Amino acid sequence: MAVDPSNGYIKAMVGGRDYSESQFNRTIARRQPGSAFKPFIYAAALDKGFTTIHQLMCKPIKYPKGDGTYWIPRDYNNDYHYRPISLREALVISDNVVSVQWLKKLGIKTVINFAKRAGIKSPLNPDLTLALGSSEVTPLEIAAAYCVFANGGYRIEPIAVLKVVDPQGRVVMSNTPTKKKVLNERVTYILTDILKGVLRPGGTGAHLKIYGPAVGKTGTTQHNRDAWFVGYTPFVSVAVYVGYDNPKRSLWSVGGVVAGPIWRDFINKTFEIYPQKDFEQPDGIIVREICSETKKIANPTCPKTKEIFIPATEPKQKCPLLHWDDLLDEHKNAREEQSKNDDGNNTHEDNNDKVKNKKESSEDSQQTPQDGNPTENWSNRPDFAKGLQEILNSKEKAGN
C-alpha cells in the first residue's frame, strides 16, 4: 500500500498474490500491526513535551488484569535489559517493556486519541496491550496515518479515484485532496529522526540496504502470524503486510525479515522516480551535545552524542562527572604521540627519564591499595594533572 503524503493519492495497491485465485483486497482487511503501532505512542510522548533522552527502566513489571492475575510484558527475546532506556533507543530497538510503560505514563485514552487524529479509524482496545499492536488496523489506514509523520503533521484522506466522467464528458464524481493540521511539524521531524535509526546499525531494519532518505518500522505479532514493515520518504508512505488468510498460521520469521525486503525493494525503486531529498528540518529545532551516560549537557570529558530538541525542552544541567577512564586514555595517547615525535637528539635525557619513570612506577606499585586499583593515585601526580588540564583546555577551545 503506497500513499502520497502531500495529497493522499494512492500510488500502489496490492491486495493479494493472484487476483484469479482470490479477489479479496487485503489492503482494507484488519490485522494486528504489532510494533508498527509504536510510533503513535512515541509521537504522542513527544507531543506532550517529552524528549528523545527521557528514560524508563526496562525491567519486569506486573500489571493487574482485573481477574486476580497479572500481565508481565517481555521483549522479543523474552528477556529484559535491566537498565534505563531512552525514548529514542526504545523505538529504534522496538522495546516492548518500555513501550508499555510509555503507554501507561501517557494514558491509554491519550494515545488512542492521538492515533485517531493521525488517521487510524479502526476501533482500538483501551488496554495496555495496545502498546504491542494488539488492535487490528488495515494496511491502507496505517500507510495513510504515517503520512502525518512524512508531511509535517497534516492528516490526509487517501484517494483512489480522482474523478469519473460519463460518455458526454460530464464529471459524475470527483475527489479533491483534503489536509488538516493535526501535529506540530517539529514533533514529526524529531520522530522521523528517531525512525531513521531503525535502518541503521542496532535498529530492527539495519539489514535492509536503502539507497536514499527513508525511515521505517517493523511489526510482528505473536507466533509470527503477522509481519509488517511500514515507513516513508518525503514523497511516499508505504505499508507492507505479509500473512495468511488463516490467522492461526505462522510465518517463517519476523516483520523485518519477511516484509522488510519487499518494502526495501519498493522504496529503492521510488528513488528512480522521486528526487533523493532528505526530510526538511523545520524552524525551531536545536541541537545539543549530550553526555551519553547521564543524558545531561556534556562537559569536555563526557562521551558525547548530538541530540535534537524543541526549544525549552533541552536539558539545562551540565554533567557533573569527570569521565576519568576516557581522560586517562587520551592522556596516555598524547604522551605516546609526543614520544614518537622526538627527533632522537635527546636520547641520553630520555634514558634518564625512563630510569626516573621506572623508579616512580616502582614507588607507585608499592603504594597501590590492596583492592588492586593501580590508577587510584594518578590524579595526584603532577604530570597527569598537567596533561589533564591541557586536554580540558584544548576541548574548551574547540567548542566542545
Structure description:
- A five-stranded antiparallel beta sheet has the order 2-1-13-12-11, sandwiched between helices. Strands 3-6 form a two-stranded antiparallel ribbon. Strands 4-5 form a two-stranded antiparallel ribbon.
- It is α+β, with helices and mostly antiparallel strands and 400 residues long.
- The chain has two domains: 2-270, Beta-lactamase (3-Layer(aba) Sandwich), CATH 3.40.710; 324-397, no CATH class.
- Helix 1 (38-47) packs across helix 3 (96-106), helix 3 (96-106) packs across helix 4 and helix 9 packs across helix 11.
- 32% of the residues lie in helices and 15% in strands.
- It is built from eleven helices and 15 strands.
Approximate shape: globular
Q: What Rg is obtained from the alpha carbons, in whole angstroms?
A: 28 Å
**Strand ordering within the main sheet:** 2-1-13-12-11
Mean pLDDT: 88
Major β-sheet, in short? 5 strands, antiparallel
Tally of discrete structural domains: 2
Report low-confidence residues grouped into runs of 5 or more. 358-382
> How many H/I helical runs?
11
CATH architecture of the largest domain: 3-Layer(aba) Sandwich
- In terms of DSSP E residues, the strand content is 15-25%
Q: CATH homologous superfamily of the largest domain, by name?
A: DD-peptidase/beta-lactamase superfamily
What fraction, in percent, of the residue positions are helical? 25-40%
Structural class computed from helices and strand pairing:
alpha+beta
